[in-house]
Amino acid sequence: MDILKEKILQYGKVIDNRLVKVDSFLNHQLDIELFNEIGKEFKKRFREKNITKILTIEASGIGIACITAQYFHVPVVFAKKHNAGNLGKDIYQAEVYSFTKDVLYNVRVSKEYLSSEDKILIIDDFLANGQAVTGLINVAKQAKAEVVGVGIVIEKRFQKGREMIEDKNIKLESLAVIEKIRDGKIVFN
Ligand code: 5GP
Questions:
Q1: What pLDDT, in 10s, does the model give residues 75-116?
Q2: Number of C-alpha atoms within 13 angstroms, CB side, residue 153?
Q3: CATH class of the domain whose range is 2-188
Q4: Is the Cβ atom of 132 under 6 angstroms away from ligand 1?
Q5: Is 155 in the pocket of ligand 1 (CB under 6 A)?
Q6: Which of the 8 DSSP states describes residue 58?
Q7: What is the pTM of this model?
Q8: To test the ligand 1 pocket, which listed residue (56, 96, 98, 100) has its Cβ within 8 A of the most ligand atoms?
């Protein structure tokens, strides 16, 4: 997706040749016109999948998932990381290792909002080592729901995420794929 790649090159900030900060349009200030294009593109790429629900993870995935859901006409469920006490005991949960923060945390979804009838599209902002997506796949599995696709805005191809997802035979679509980062410069595939 060219306009996304242009934004990343123009506004992205590289940290330690492995992290990309895109706070000015994706992770803090949100460029809704760009989000609309992202939503349309995900619709194009997963059109044939009969998706019934979009699953994402708080916080950064929520905005992207919501705009995308308008093109699929389905609800969004986001896995909670924080203040999940009020979810009660009827929850699906999975442990996730955070690449950016170097901590383990739990993601939780109420059993009420996922079922064996669901065909799920997982959406997230970044794919690095695939830990967040694996946690969401795990949660969906507990609900006996089918994960029919994973849509990622920015994939860092030099990490292990793609292999993790493709090993599970799940369709993965990333809108911008960073092949490598050298001396602070982003190189797309
Ligand atoms: P993974 O679980 O695939 O290892 O990492 C993906 C998650 O970590 C995403 O949900 C994202 O929030 C965060 N993340 C990983 N790499 C980056 C990065 O380079 N930039 C930003 N902003 N977030 C990242």
A1: 999 999 976 667 778 999 999 999 888 999 999 999 999 999
A2: 30
A3: alpha beta
A4: yes
A5: no
A6: T
A7: 0.97
A8: 100
